[in-house]
């Protein structure tokens, strides 16, 4: 920190209040673009930083460091965009949708979407990969069945973050344990205290949300039959089209580099499109870069379908491509610019130092860890960054309270990882909204696993006053 003087506590709190007011008014009330809102608060924060002796050059230097650290995430985003386009043109996602329409009952779609993504994310360890592959197919199934897209998106994201929080293959699971100084598998076992009850809460919730749909109305079943027939006409569907998805699964299990695996799977999809689909080579390549469009299908012109079916076909097929991820990347750069200005201002550091002085109980320590992780991920858009900042701040508090580091790991995951995709301006929030086609504020109330897990973590923090259940102490571990 190169500011010449530290801001006062009152002025630092005033800045954070102003920031959240701009977010609430700009995004929540006026529905302004996230990029514009981030630029506005960056200007406010930059002026604040300069007032206390900072400079614009310091902000740019901090931005360069953040962008450097974000390059792997940018590459992953572009790879997922290309993968979706290639899986569309090859028929891989249409094949998944066809099978989904054949076996999924509308009454259990939300629950099925949650359970399927739980399995995939646990085996692969990636929320983005889960949402960008099987999640896209499930959203298309929901569209064809004419059920709620926000609830389906909530189910997909809930299941995707289950594995992102618990899988030993997840980068955030590993980084939270490393940052807290805890053993990975002890950390995972401790997170089961919140994750298992949250899992059952989500199962009950998604069952009840879909229960009124019964077995599907006559109109729904007719729409499903038409969609299946349309997909079978537009694509040459066969089990080999699922091979690119199998490659991604194997790559995750073998712990191969995610970007390389996704690019290889995309290339495999292109090869399958050449062999099986009647699509021009220029369109196949274009689908990888610019995204797939139903107009690329020669059979579409001869296909007779009503307006509703045509809309569902477009919702399913018109997506993907590297350029589809440009929007989220721009938002990420704007978020990093704001986070850099906030770093230089010194306001957040002042508030957190004052907060640490008040942490004289187990409940306060754990709640402060969760709250700080949430604030940091909201300000920086990156859960991993928040992990290491929180660890450096609260490590003495955990030692004083004789709290095991697995408590810190779980609190950071509950406050940062689970909420990262629920802020419209974070890269995860933008990715989920863009990939699933549902606005963040629309799916937020239905991300039942994330919200339940967060509430249960808070409950355990309060219960620590009377019982050690769910809270681990150094002296209690062997």
Features:
about 475 residues, 22 helices, about 0% strand, globular, single chain, about 75% helix
Structural class: mainly alpha
Poorly predicted regions are: none
What radius of gyration results from the CA coordinates?
Answer: 23 Å
Mean of pLDDT = 82
| Secondary-structure element string | HHHHHHHHHHHHHHHHHHHHHH
Report how far the terminal alpha carbons are from each other.
41 Å
Number of E-type strands = 0
Strand proportion: under 5%
**Discrete helix count:** 22
Form type: globular
What is the helical fraction, as a range of percent?
over 70%
Biggest beta sheet summary: none
Summarize the structure in words.
This protein is an all-alpha fold. The protein is globular, with a radius of gyration of 23 Å. It has a domain at 70-325. The chain has helices at 9-29, 34-51, 56-90, 92-103, 109-124, 127-145, 149-166, 171-180, 184-211, 218-234, 243-253, 258-276, 281-290, 307-317, 326-345, 347-356, 362-380, 383-400, 405-420, 427-436, 440-443, 448-463.
